[in-house]
Amino acid sequence: MNLHKTTIESTTYQRWQEQQSKALKARLKAGELSSNEYARQVDTVMKGYLGRNGKRHLKACIIWDHDVRGLGLRITPRDVKTWVLSYRVRGVKHLMKLGRYGQPLMLDTARSRAKAELGDINRGIDPLEERKKAMEAEKQQWRVKRLVEEFKKEHVAKKATKTQKHYNQILDMYVVSCWGTRRAKDITDHDVELLRDSLSKKPYQANKTLAVVSRLMSYAEKRRVRPQRSNPCCGVKRIEIADAKAERDRRLTNDELARLGKALVKLEVDGRPRMNRGGEYRDRADGEERNDRDAAEAVRLLLFTGCRLNEILKLPWDKVTLEEGVIVVDGKTGLREVVLSAPAIEVLSRIPERGPFVFPGRAPRRPRNDDLKRAWEWLEAEAEIKHRRHDLRHTVGSTGGDANLALPMITSLLGHKQTKTTEGYVEVDTEPIKKAADTVAGEIAAALNGDSGGEVVNIDSRK
Questions:
Q1: Which among 176, 192, 199 has a CA at the least distance from the CA of 232?
Q2: How far, in Å, CA of 258 to CA of 195, rounded?
Q3: What is the C-alpha to C-alpha distance for residues 244 and 203, in angstroms, rounded to an integer?
Q4: For 19-49, what is each residue's pLDDT tens digit?
Q5: Closest CA relative to residue 89, chosen from 57, 113, 123
Q6: Residue 138 is inside which H or E element, if any?
Q7: Which of 15, 50, 235, 375 is least surrounded by CB atoms within 10 angstroms?
Q8: What is the mean pLDDT of residues 84-110?
Q9: Which H or E run includes 61?
Q10: Do 351 and 358 meet the contact criterion of CB atoms below 8 Å apart?
Q11: What own/partner pairs with CB < 8 Å and gap ≥ 24 does 426-432 have?
Q12: Which residues pair with 86 in a beta bridge?
């Protein structure tokens, strides 16, 4: 099949298959092919080749031009037509796209362009290499706004919905607004320090922004927009907020858990008070009573499973298998299976099924979406504690550490991808350490004072 102006429009992948089958049949009659070889080649042409995954794959065909050597029209199984040019440079064969078939790239134009490219090839110029250099040069001129757009498409879009919102907020509010019109390769560590310092009154936000910018610049290196190992965030220190972090990330103590347990019972039985618009307290309605009970059960599940808040609030019943003692949650790291403890199974078994979700919202067909904000504020006040809802997850990790569970086991329990993340969740309970220190120091103090007993004594006392 040769290329002609009158036949290109009517040329389809199916027609090519028919032409190939006829040619193979002619070769069979001429005795050039055996019957087995003929059957194999016809099968490949009509059904495609057998891939490694066991599926059939139709290979795109190329119809070569007889007038310009190397020029061809590639046709995919979906009849997408593209002009290609086959050539060799320094003994290496290349196949270069010239463009999609159609106006203005018709047969005559494609032949003219192919001849021009072949002229450069004869002079030792590789057009694919030149095209690659031009693309690299263009990337060097990328502005930060363009880089952020590509970063959102290729990196941020793969994240969980809540993480996407977090990334987009930082990129739009701080990165694009500050550096949008600047070239990405010109951003220095000094620029990053200025951005960090501008957020010094918001230390948590500053450190989160620094982390996102670091990932953005690593992506720029991957896309060769910036030179390798030129991330400007590497030498920039985060804002130290050790005291605030200790206050924010601390676990619930046993006394706090006991007070929280009493508050959860009160929330179920009596409920949190509601006010009318006039500021007067009123009795809770039936829907509000169920709402309070759901909030209490949700908090218990957070403590018994170590799941994230949205993983529990958006849990559908079809992902709950009480007989096997597992649930499948959809969180930041994707779908994962959570093995239920006996207390967690007990909680789920007493929750009535009122729709597709374990904790339905105001619309029965939708999950609860209030993040337990008001219920948790009431629980904090009632139990006299000051914690984030996420601290329940820290408590689960720290309790696992107290039980001498291996760090990989706690990582699996919390659904983390890396054990390094889990290390920030495991906080050591100092009370057992204090008792151990008292025991050891008591023995040493007794020996210093000449006593054989192991009672804890004041080493400053003298007989």
A1: 192
A2: 44
A3: 10
A4: 778 888 888 888 888 888 878 777 777 766 5
A5: 123
A6: helix 127-140
A7: 235
A8: 86
A9: strand 61-64
A10: yes
A11: 426/397, 426/398, 426/400, 426/401, 427/249, 427/250, 427/251, 427/394, 427/397, 427/398, 427/401, 428/398, 428/401, 428/402, 429/251, 429/253, 429/398, 429/402, 432/402
A12: 95
Contact assessment for residue 56 and residue 49, using Cβ atoms and an 8 Å cutoff: yes
Q: Which residue type does 91 have? A: G
Residue 194: both structure tokens together: 């200025």
300 pLDDT band, cuts 50/70/90, is very high
Q: What is the SS3 assignment for 133? A: helix
- Look at residue 174 and tell me whether its pLDDT is greater than 90: yes
- How big is the chain, counted in residues? 463
Phi, psi of 440, rounded to the nearest 5 degrees: -65, -50
Amino acid identity of residue 164, one-letter, is Q
Confidence of residue 454 (pLDDT cuts 50, 70, 90): very low
Burial 177-210 (b: 16+ CB within 10 A, else e): eebeeebbbebeeebbbebbeebeeebebbbbbb
Q: How far apart, in whole angstroms, are the C-alpha atoms of residue 305 and residue 317?
A: 16
Edge-to-edge strands, sheet with 92-100: 61-64, 71-75, 81-89, 92-100
Distance CA 143, CA 134 (A): 17
Is the separation of the CB atoms in 393 and 306 below 8 Å? Answer: yes
Instruction: Answer for the pair 270, 377: CB distance below 8 angstroms, yes or no.
Output: no
CB 171, CB 163: distance < 8 Å: no
Q: How far is 401 from 394, CA to CA, in rounded Å?
A: 11
* Sole residue written with tokens 């990932």: 215
Task: Scan for tokens 């102006």, then name that residue.
Answer: 5
Q: What is the rounded average pLDDT for all residues in the chain?
A: 82
Q: What pLDDT score does 209 carry?
A: 94
Q: Which of 64-68, 239-243, 386-390, 407-411 is predicted least confidently? A: 239-243
Give every CB contact of residue 148 below 8 A, 6+ residues apart in sequence.
171, 175, 176, 180, 216
Query: Once rounded to an integer, what is the mean pLDDT over residues 68-84?
Result: 85
Q: How far apart are CA 97 and CA 359, in angstroms?
A: 55
Pairing of strands 334-339, 326-331: antiparallel
Tokens 């896309």 correspond to 223
Q: Mention every residue, 6+ apart, whose C-beta is less than 8 A from residue 259.
A: 383, 384, 385
What is the sign, positive or negative, of the torsion defined by CA atoms of 263, 266, 268, 272?
Answer: negative
- Distance between CA atoms of 402 and 11, rounded to whole angstroms? 73
Kindly list the distances between the CA atom of residue 34 and the CA atoms of 22, 28, 29, 46, in Å, as whole numbers in the listed order.
15, 7, 9, 18
